[in-house]
């Protein structure tokens, strides 16, 4: 499945280093399906989004994903793509940017023609072929309909999807220069949150977290003395404060790093899909490690 990782160090910008892939130097690594793309989203001091992403279609693309990326931001969003819909191209690689917000998704939704009809003029915001970018455009449309309220927009979009089109998984993260939102729905894939105290559980350690699948690693020295909130598709270290996000739970981290939780969906999708309902490619993308 796709890997999600997001970090908020609000209200301060911090330096962090990301490695989106490990070098393929072990038999265990060779036995895994290779991902189809990697991406990292941050924000400039002026609040402008900076997206660096690459499909993994060539050796040069792989080197891009393995190189250390030292960036400064208040929020960070990293994604490893296993393609379910859309070609292995830059336009289909996460994160996506719309109206100054960044978005990444782990899951599959179907009946894209119905979703396109619902998007209306917002369909023009979709430049690739993926269900993920269409979902983001629907969220953007609902945010605009709710006078810029991002949480309300996510809730309205997720409710429409749950009631209208087939859903396998809808885990997603949205970031701005100062805030972060994350939704897990339904309970198909895990999503975890860590409100990390300054210095971590030992009180004096920098942040150094890594996916067990060897895909995403993040390190930040300033977080040895500052707090952070991390959301990821798996527990990234041994900190005991990790918890699994509940199905239908929307998290919000504000510009002062206050974490709040709201249950926005207390029902299963009306048309819930299983792996047997997916095509071979989409099914493989949801089980890959």
Automatic annotation (TrEMBL):
InterPro entries: EgtC-like (IPR026869), GATase_2_dom (IPR017932), Ntn_hydrolases_N (IPR029055)
Lineage: superkingdom: Bacteria
PANTHER family: GLUTAMINE AMIDOTRANSFERASE (PTHR42824), GLUTAMINE AMIDOTRANSFERASE YAFJ-RELATED (PTHR42824:SF1)
Record keywords: Glutamine amidotransferase
Protein name: Class II glutamine amidotransferase
Organism of provenance: Speluncibacter jeojiensis
Pfam families hit by this protein: GATase_4
Residues in Glutamine amidotransferase type-2 domain copies: 2-256
Segments for region (Disordered): 28-52
SUPFAM superfamilies registered for this protein in UniProt: N-terminal nucleophile aminohydrolases (Ntn hydrolases) (SSF56235)
